[in-house]
Amino acid sequence: MAESLFRIQTRTQFHEALLAAIEEAAYGGWPELRLCDGDYADWPLGDRRFVAALERWVTSRRRLVLLASTFDDVARRHARWVAWRKPWSHVVECRVNEEASELPCLLHAPGNLHLELVDRTTYRGTVSRERSDLVRGREIFDAVLQRSMPAFPATTAGL
User: Fold this and answer.
1) Is the pTM of this model over 0.90?
2) Is 134:111 a contact under the CB 8 Å cutoff?
3) Does 19 reside within a domain?
4) Structural domain span for residue 134
5) What whole-number distance in Å separates Cα of residue 21 and Cα of residue 3?
6) Tens-digit pLDDT profile for residues 26-40
7) Is residue 157 situated within a structural domain?
8) How many other CB atoms sit within 10 Å of the CB of residue 121?
9) CB atoms near residue 59 (< 10 Å)
10) 61-82: string of b/e by CB count within 10 Å (b at 16+)?
11) What is the CATH number of the domain that holds 25?
């Protein structure tokens, strides 16, 4: 992912770009990753390689934020990621924004990389390191984050 702009044109490229971004975050020591999608139904969160890359990336000084409209199907679709998240719940924050009609589909690493799927049907998108895209990505994510609330706790306390 050394290029400044890479075009995503297929579902496979989308998944590979997500994995490559997490791998690069691990090796580059990026402190924060921000993910946004309506429901993460088509993300490879539960893929062994994706979880392994997150394991290489995560430390107590990192922060992973996931924004969604709903997390209803995440536990069923991405059980491996849910299990990985439990011991790292102090650095993984899940938030829901029910106000937005449709959330953007993106992975944003502040100051490092912005991956955005602009057409979910045809899997068209970009991976960029351009300053303008990094700024725009941060603004998009922050706008959705401001109207969100905590959701999808890692554990549930019984009474």
Assistant:
1) yes
2) yes
3) yes
4) 5-150
5) 12
6) 999 999 999 999 999
7) no
8) 5
9) 11
10) ebebbbbbbbbeebeebbeebb
11) 3.30.870.10
What is the distance of C-alpha 151 from the center of its chain? Answer: 15
SS3 call for 23: helix
141-147: long-range pairs with CB below 8 Å, 24+: 141/34, 141/36, 141/67, 141/106, 141/108, 144/36, 144/67, 144/97, 144/100, 144/103, 144/104, 145/65, 145/67, 145/95, 145/97, 147/97, 147/99, 147/100
Distance (Å) of CA 51 to CA 80, 85, 113, 121: 7, 9, 19, 25
Does any domain span residue 155? no
At residue 152, the 3 state secondary structure works out as coil
Residues 45-96 have pLDDT tens digits of 999 999 999 999 999 999 999 999 999 999 999 999 999 999 999 999 999 9
Q: Six-digit token pair at 40?
A: 């993460």
Counting the structural domains of the chain, the total is 1
Q: How many helices (H) and strands (E) does the chain have?
A: 5, 8
Neighbours of 126 (CB within 10 A): 17
Q: For residue 87, what is the DSSP state?
A: G
- How far the first Cα of the chain sits from its last, in Å, is 48
Residue 156 lies in a domain: no
Q: What would the DSSP string read from start to end of 95-117?
A: EE--S-SS--EEEEETTTEEEEE
